[in-house]
Design goal:
With 115 residues, this protein is of the alpha+beta class. It has 2 helices and 6 strands. A hairpin with a 4-residue loop joins strand 1 and strand 2. The N and C termini lie far apart (58 Å).
């Protein structure tokens, strides 16, 4: 989730603002897939209140911008990340160690002495 580019705003971005300086135009459209260095991501509140400098035109590609919230894909990715982080990783045992017995979660190991 990307945040609004306006300072001190912590809302989720729903629109992307770009400027066409040659045409004195500000273009406000749907949120871009990737953050670009010369564009600004805005929340719904800031997108609706956007004004341009005198002599500039604002082109709105969408009449209203609403926060869509997390999609099912976002929630699935988050669940997968939590599962992966919680998975126990056991370090590989040296080849000289052999398991000889097991009782519950306890194991009896024997080290083969080659010396």
């Amino acid at each position: 989730m990307r945040q609004c580019s306006r300072s001190a705003c912590t809302n989720a971005a729903v629109a992307t603002l770009t400027y066409v300086y040659a045409d004195s135009t500000a273009v406000l459209g749907p949120l871009a897939h990737l953050a670009e260095p010369h564009s600004y991501d805005l929340c719904a509140q800031h997108a609706e209140r956007l004004t341009a400098p005198r002599g500039w035109e604002v082109v709105r590609l969408m009449p209203e911008f609403e926060d869509a919230g997390p999609s099912p894909d976002d929630l699935s990715a988050l669940a997968d990340a939590v599962r992966e982080a919680g998975r126990v990783r056991r370090p590989a045992e040296p080849s000289s160690v052999t398991e000889t017995a097991r009782r519950g979660h306890l194991r009896v190991l024997r080290a083969d002495d080659d010396s």
